[in-house]
Amino acid sequence: MIRATRIDPVAVEHHVNSKLQSAIRAVNDVAQTQARAVVEAHSAQHAQVNDMRMTQALESMEDRLRKALEERMQELVAVRMEHLEAEIRLAIVKQGEEILPSVGRQIVDVQQQTAAQLEFVKTCAEKKAKSIVPLHHAEENSAHKAIRLSLLATMKEYKAAAVASAARYADDLIRSLGDVKSSDSYEGGVIRQVKSHQVATSDGANMLLLTSSEATSKPPTCTSRIGSSDVGDGEALDMPKRTDVQDTKATSTLVSARLSE
């Protein structure tokens, strides 16, 4: 992680100049030393005893000069590296200052786009819900109407079956009473007619039970909506009329009178 530091170029330049001056002074010192060594060497040329000492001194001076030059070069390289690092840090900080505003603008744009997309999705969902509710109500009303018509048709069929069964029973009973020749045959015919009437009554009850079970299996909201407004005043649920009930009572009275005789 690069530290965000402030570097003064003037201070860096002053530091580099001081290092260079120290290196120059060291080189001058070495040159003076070498000059003195040369003078000493010239002065010692006439002394054969000091030849070996001069050679060793020159070699040692060369070694010291080489080491000093290497140290000064390393110092100069270190100063140059520090200067380059400072320049790199300054460039990175400048680039960061230029990049941060653009990144902030991009983040704001993304947030605005996301908010717009969410608003669009919300609007579409609301429109779809508003369009689905009327369609659902229409389907429910059509289903209720179909169930109501089916129930009315079933009641009409039951009414027709009940009236036909009562008519057949009355015809058979009158025919058997007219054809009676003996008390035994009369009693047997009456018993048979009573049994057939019981069978017809049980069939009608079974049909009524089946119709009521079908009606209860449907949704209660459908059956509860059936009223006098859906059918005519005299056709509500198509129940048997009062004349059919009076005919049945008259037939029962006739049978009772014949039995009493």
Note down, in words, how this protein is organized.
This protein has 261 residues and is an all-alpha fold. It has two domains: 100 residues; 121 residues, no CATH class. It is 85% helix and 0% strand. The chain has five helices and no strands. Helix 2 packs across helix 5. It is rod-shaped, with a radius of gyration of 63 Å. About 16% of the residues have low confidence. Keywords: Coiled coil.
The helicity comes to over 70%
Structural category is mainly alpha
N- to C-terminal distance: 125 Å
Q: How does the major sheet shape up?
A: none
Mean pLDDT: 70
Uncertain regions: pLDDT < 50 for 5+ in a row? 208-248
Radius of gyration: 63 Å
Large-scale geometry: rod-shaped
Overall number of domains? 2
H/E topology pattern: HHHHH
Give the beta-strand count: 0
Strand content: under 5%
Number of distinct helices: 5
Keywords: Coiled coil
Short summary:
The chain has helices at residues 9-43, 51-178, 183-217, 220-224, 242-260.
Which SSEs are present, and which pair or pack?
Blueprint (H helix, E strand, L loop, with lengths): L8 H35 L7 H128 L4 H35 L2 H5 L17 H19 L1
Helix pairs in contact: 1-2, 2-3, 2-5
Annotation keywords:
5 helices, single chain, 261 residues, 2 domains, mainly alpha, rod-shaped
